[in-house]
Every structure is written in C-alpha cells, then in structure tokens.
C-alpha cells in the first residue's frame, strides 16, 4: 500500500489551503498522512503525531493537526491548548463533520481543504496575524509516515 494517496497536484492544493489559512493568523496548521493508524483511536494517534512534529512548541500554543490514516479510513483533527481554550465547544466535531461529508464521496483533498479553511477562520479570529513578530513556525508541507 502506498504511503501517499495524493498526487503532486493534490498535495499542492492542500499546501495552498494551509498557506491561505495561515495568511491572516499566527496559528499553525499541519497535515499528517499515513496508511494505518497505530492506535485504535485516531485522536490518540493524532496527539502522538502532534508531539512528534513538535507542534506543541508554537509560541501561542495555537497549532492544529489534520491527521489521516487513509488505508484505515480514519482521521482526526486536534488543536493545541491555546486554540482549544478559545474555540466553541463543538468546533472540532463540526469541523470533522464537514471533512467527513467530503470524504464520504471520495473527495479527500476537498475535505481537507475545507477543514483547513474552517480552522484558519477560527485561528484568524482568536490569533490574528501580527506582521511585526509573526513567523511561520512550522512547515506547511504534508508529512507522511
């Protein structure tokens, strides 16, 4: 089984969605893709990957990870403490529902892009971009296992 289900064009669309979402915020968004989820619960695996990628090291604790185990058909969206403390209680669940609606019809790139866009809107609201001090703290490229 291939570890990368996305064509180079698909990957570029996802990276572009990340860059667009991060334009107006100090928040950081990453996408991690692997064929199989190493744990029964994709949220637990996403939390482990979050740490593995060093996403907890952002200045304002405002990183968001979109995790996808494509062969197992599992995914999760997790945010660091800074963003979790600010978004509405149902935000992550509603974001997953939006993604799931696209995934159900096989539109993975569209689902990830829409979820990234939605997370970006929340990040922009709570962590607006400050042109003086903001830097891109984490890579925008998709990581693969």
From TrEMBL:
It holds the Pfam family TPM_phosphatase. Residues 3-121 form the TPM domain. InterPro entries: TPM_dom. Coiled coil: none annotated. PANTHER family: BLL7265 PROTEIN (PTHR30373:SF8), UPF0603 PROTEIN YGCG (PTHR30373). This is TPM domain-containing protein. It comes from Spirosoma aureum. The lineage of its organism: Bacteria, Pseudomonadati, Bacteroidota, Cytophagia, Cytophagales.
């Amino acid at each position: 089984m291939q570890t990368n289900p996305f064509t180079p064009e698909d990957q570029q669309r996802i990276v572009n969605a990340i860059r667009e979402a991060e334009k107006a915020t100090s928040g950081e968004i990453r996408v991690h893709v692997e064929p199989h989820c190493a744990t029964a619960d994709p949220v637990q695996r996403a939390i482990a990957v979050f740490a593995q990628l060093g996403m907890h090291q952002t200045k304002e604790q405002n990183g968001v990870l979109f995790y996808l185990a494509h062969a197992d058909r599992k995914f999760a969206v997790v945010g660091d403490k800074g963003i979790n403390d600010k978004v509405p209680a149902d935000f992550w669940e509603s974001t997953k529902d939006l993604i799931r609606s696209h995934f159900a019809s096989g539109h993975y790139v569209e689902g990830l892009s829409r979820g990234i866009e939605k997370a970006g809107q929340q990040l922009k609201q709570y962590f607006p971009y400050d042109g003086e001090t903001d830097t891109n703290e984490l890579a925008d490229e998709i990581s693969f296992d």
